[in-house]
Specification:
The protein has 17 helices and ten strands. The protein is of the alpha/beta class.
Length: 341
């Protein structure tokens, strides 16, 4: 019989238990979004039976999801039977300015989620888990599936990095900016709104930029932004003051990334800059979030995140140098790249 004053041994299974729990709770949160519970719980605490009536779902079954969400910290129960979103849960709302709702939806949607089951196979091959699961690389897959492309584009459009990026742009020196792989134009639109003297060029695959005109028109910048369909593996618009590659370089393994950068280098003038936006892990200070993002890039594209040292070597191989880095802890950093003399 254990003595009362004996200190129980520390549980060694806690890290594993946390991972297992997170894998299960993830689905509860996805269901709350799908059913519209998140929007119903925005604002003051509400009785669960009121929420269930509004959504026409059985209260006792809804309670299973909501209790799970309370355990995640995304939902609060300030009084028995009354529930509301926590400050963290507010990021799951449709109008979340950080775009975390749409990013979460992409990560838990269909083939984006199911591709993770092929991660082990991917490690033993030279293909991404997504390609193994679907039979196609991501962008080829999206070009043939409108619904999945809409989920992907919303995740990219709603989580633009406008504020940190704008701090790196001098409007007086940015007559023209080319947004490479800019999707439907959310990022270049944000830049042009803040820099009224700057002109933009949105550059992406032709079928991708087809969705850009409504977004640019709504932002009020369509008269200052040209839309160019093309392939940055073949070449990019020449002579711009600033080239922007936001969430682009981390999507490609070194051989493809080098080809893109080589084409950018050939298009740059002597005073042009390239701004690379992306997550930048540190080998000596691993971050759980950035390592998870690196793993996500590996699953989707077969290309884990690069460190600063790896970027420097890649850039030098095509005649570019890393001039300065504005690191954002657990966020997307900005690398200022210049042509080598």
């Amino acid at each position: 019989m254990e003595r009362p004053d004996t200190i129980p041994p520390e549980r060694t299974d806690r890290p594993l238990a946390r991972i297992v729990s997170s894998a299960m709770l993830l689905h509860a949160v996805a269901a709350l979004i799908e059913l519209g519970v998140v929007e119903e719980l925005a604002g003051p605490p509400r009785p669960l039976d009121d929420v269930a009536r509004a959504l026409t779902v059985p209260e006792e079954r809804l309670l299973v999801l909501v209790r799970a969400a309370v355990a995640t910290g995304l939902v609060e129960e300030p009084s028995p039977g009354l529930f509301s979103l926590s400050s963290a849960g507010d990021h799951l709302r449709i109008d979340d300015p950080q775009g975390l709702r749409d990013l979460f939806r992409m990560c838990t949607h269909g083939d984006f989620f199911q591709a993770w089951t092929r991660l082990g196979h991917s490690v033993t091959s030279d293909r991404s888990a997504f390609a193994i699961h679907t039979g196609q690389e991501l962008f080829a897959y999206l070009s043939e599936r409108e619904a999945a492309a809409a989920v992907f584009n919303r995740a990219m459009n709603s989580s633009t990095l406008a504020a940190p990026l704008l701090r790196e742009i001098d409007p007086a020196e940015t007559g023209t900016m080319v947004d490479l792989g800019g999707g439907e134009g959310a990022t270049i639109a944000a830049v042009l709104r803040a820099c009224p003297s700057t002109r933009g060029i949105l550059f992406d695959l032709p079928h991708v930029v087809e969705g850009a005109p409504p977004l640019l028109r709504e932002a009020g910048v369509e008269d200052r932004c040209s839309i160019v369909g093309g392939d940055f593996f073949e070449g990019v618009p020449r002579g711009a003051d600033v080239y922007l590659a936001a969430r682009v370089m981390q999507n490609w393994a070194d051989p493809d990334a080098a080809l893109i950068l080589r084409n950018v280098r050939e298009a740059m003038g002597a005073t042009s800059r390239l701004l690379i936006v992306g997550h930048l892990p540190e080998q000596d200070r691993p971050s759980e979030f950035l390592e998870a993002m690196s793993l996500s890039m590996f699953v989707l594209y077969g290309a884990p995140l690069r460190t600063r040292e790896q970027y420097e070597a890649l850039l030098a191989s095509v005649g570019l140098s890393l001039h300065e880095v504005r690191r954002v802890p657990d966020g997307e950093s900005i690398m200022d790249v210049r042509p080598m003399p």
